[in-house]
Design goal:
Layout: H1 31-48, H2 57-66, H3 81-86, H4 93-98, H5 111-124, H6 130-135, H7 138-145, H8 150-157, H9 161-171, H10 187-190, E1 211-213, H11 217-221, H12 224-236, E2 241-243, H13 252-256, H14 260-279, E3 283-285, H15 289-302, H16 307-315, E4 316-317, H17 319-328, E5 341-346, H18 349-352, H19 359-364, E6 370-375, H20 392-409, E7 413-416, H21 419-426, H22 438-446
Parallel strand pairs: 1-2, 1-3, 3-4, 5-6, 5-7
Helix pairs in contact: 1-5, 12-22, 14-16, 15-16
C-alpha cells in the first residue's frame, strides 16, 4: 500500500463504502460547518483533479483556483463556492468511479453528499428559485399536463417559438431545450384493464418471478410506450406484471434541488405501497434508472434505520438486471425472431452508479447477428440541468463528446436506458431508426407487437 511521507495513504485500494446522510441533524444545516467542509474537500480536489472530465462542477472549481491571486484555494472568494455547487447534478460518478479518497480512506470524501448538503441549506433558507421548485415537481406537473385537452395545448405550446420565449422568462426553461410530450392517455389508463399472465412464478436467484411495475412520472405521462414494451417483454418470459396501485414521484428531481422534506413525503406514500407488493410475493421494477437508483441507494442512505426502506432496496431492480438473473437460471427465452445489426448503447450515469454492470448489453448481445457498441459518457441532460436557461448550453457542451462517439459508431440504432439521455443525444444526430429504448429493441427482437 502506497504511503506519502506523512504516513497517509495516497489513495485507497479498498472498495468504496458510503456513509448515511445525516440530513435530520441540526448540524447538517450549520452553514459555518458546511463552509469548513467545502474548503477541506475543495482543497483536496484541487490537488488531485482526477474528476476534471466529469460534470462542470470540477472545471468551475479549478478555474476559480487557477484564476485567483494565489492560484490556491485560499485565493478563492468563499462566496463563489456556490458556483461550484450549482454545477453538480448529483450523478455520483465522482464517488463511484473516480475519487481515490472516498471512505474507507481517512479523508472520507463524499463530494455528491457535500453538494447535496449545500443545496439543502439553500433550499432550507428559501434561496432556491421558484421556477426550480415548479419544474422539479414532476408529479404535480404531470397530473395537470395529462388532463384531456390540456395535454394537446401544452404539446403545441412547446413547439411554438413565442410560447417558448414566455416559458423561458417565467420558468427559466431554455427556449431551445427539447421538452417531452404529455399523453392524456397515460400508462395507468392504458394498463387499467391489463390482465397479468397466469403462470406459476418461478424464483431465480434474488428474483421472485413476478413483478409490480413502478410506473414513474416519465413513463406514465411522457413515454408510456417504454413501460408497455417492458410489460410485453416480461410477460413473454412468463413473468407476470402487476401495476403498483398508487405511487408518487420517486423523489429524484426534488433531491437534486435539496428539497429533502418533499423526498420524505414521497417516501411515506411509495414505501408502504411497495411493501404491500413485496408481501404479496412480487419484486419491484421501474424502467427509469434514476427511479431505481432512488430506492436502491438514495433513500436507504437517507433512512438507514428504516427497515421498510431497506427491504424495498433488496427487492427493486433495473429491468435488464432482472432479466439477466432469469437468464442465468435458464428462464429467459432466447428464441429471437429479428436481428438488430449494430447498436450504440449509451450507459446512463444513474445506471452505472448502481454497480450492476452492463446488464443491458449482456441481454441485447444474446440476439443473433447483433453487435453492441458501448458509450460510457455523460449525456449532459440530468433532468432539469438539461432544460434550464442557465445550464442548457453547458448541458449541450457535455453532450457533444457523446454525440461524436455515437456518430463514429455508425450504428443502426442508438439506445439508452434513460429516455431523456437518449433524446438529448438523438437531437444531435440523424438516426437511421427512431427507436431509442433498449426495451423497445428487445420487444422487436422477440417479434412482439
Amino acid at each position: 500500500m502506497n504511503k506519502n511521507e506523512g504516513g497517509l495513504r495516497e489513495g485507497s485500494l479498498e472498495a468504496p463504502t458510503r456513509h448515511a446522510l445525516d440530513w435530520t441533524s441540526p448540524e447538517f444545516y450549520n452553514e459555518d460547518k458546511l463552509k469548513e467542509e467545502l474548503e477541506r474537500v475543495f482543497d483536496i480536489c484541487h490537488g488531485c483533479r482526477r474528476c476534471v472530465s466529469l460534470c462542470a462542477s470540477f472545471p468551475t472549481l479549478f478555474d476559480l483556483v487557477d484564476e485567483s491571486p494565489t492560484m490556491e484555494l485560499d485565493g478563492v472568494d468563499k462566496a463563489d463556492y456556490s458556483k461550484v455547487v450549482d454545477e453538480c447534478f448529483l450523478c455520483d460518478l465522482c464517488y463511484q468511479a473516480k475519487c481515490p479518497y472516498v471512505p474507507p480512506h481517512e479523508w472520507a470524501i463524499d463530494y455528491p453528499h457535500l453538494m447535496l448538503r449545500a443545496k439543502a441549506i439553500e433550499f432550507h433558507k428559501g434561496k432556491r428559485k421558484l421556477s426550480l421548485k415548479i419544474i422539479s415537481n414532476t408529479d404535480g406537473v404531470s397530473r395537470i399536463a395529462t388532463k384531456p385537452g390540456i395535454s394537446s395545448i401544452i404539446n403545441a405550446s412547446n413547439k411554438n417559438k413565442t410560447a417558448r420565449k414566455l416559458l423561458e422568462k417565467t420558468l427559466d426553461i431554455h427556449r431551445d431545450a427539447h421538452l417531452p410530450q404529455y399523453h392524456s392517455n397515460t400508462l395507468r389508463k392504458r394498463m387499467k384493464n391489463h390482465q397479468s399472465s397466469r403462470v406459476i412464478p418461478q424464483p431465480a436467484g434474488p428474483t421472485l418471478g413476478r413483478i409490480a411495475l413502478f410506473a414513474t412520472c416519465y413513463c406514465n405521462a411522457n413515454e408510456p410506450s417504454i413501460a408497455e414494451d417492458l410489460v410485453k417483454v416480461f410477460q413473454h418470459n412468463d413473468i407476470p406484471v402487476h401495476m403498483i396501485s398508487k405511487e408518487r414521484c420517486c423523489g429524484m428531481p426534488k433531491l437534486e434541488q435539496g428539497d429533502l422534506q418533499s423526498v420524505d413525503k414521497y417516501r411515506q406514500v411509495n414505501i408502504p405501497q411497495m411493501l404491500a407488493e413485496i408481501d404479496a410475493g412480487r419484486d419491484i421494477v421501474a424502467a427509469i434508472p434514476s427511479c431505481v437508483l432512488m430506492f436502491k441507494q438514495e433513500l436507504p442512505l437517507m433512512f438507514p434505520k428504516d427497515k421498510d426502506v431497506q427491504r424495498v432496496k433488496q427487492h427493486i431492480f433495473d429491468p435488464f438486471e432482472y432479466l439477466l438473473h432469469r437468464h442465468k437460471a435458464g428462464l429467459l427465452k432466447t428464441n429471437f425472431k429479428q436481428s438488430l445489426g449494430k447498436i450504440a448503447w449509451h450507459v446512463p450515469c444513474h445506471q452505472r452508479v448502481q454497480n450492476i454492470g452492463p446488464k443491458t448489453k449482456n441481454i441485447l448481445a444474446l440476439i443473433p447477428d447483433t453487435e453492441i457498441q458501448v458509450i460510457e459518457r455523460c449525456s449532459g441532460h440530468d433532468g432539469t440541468y438539461g432544460v434550464r436557461r442557465e445550464t442548457y448550453k453547458k448541458s449541450q457542451k457535455i453532450a457533444r463528446a457523446t454525440i461524436s462517439r455515437v456518430k463514429r459508431a455508425d450504428a443502426d440504432y442508438l439506445v439508452s436506458d434513460c429516455p431523456m439521455a437518449a433524446t438529448q443525444i438523438a437531437d444531435g444526430l440523424q438516426l437511421k431508426n427512431p427507436e431509442t429504448s433498449p426495451l423497445t429493441l428487445l420487444r422487436m427482437a422477440y417479434g412482439l407487437n
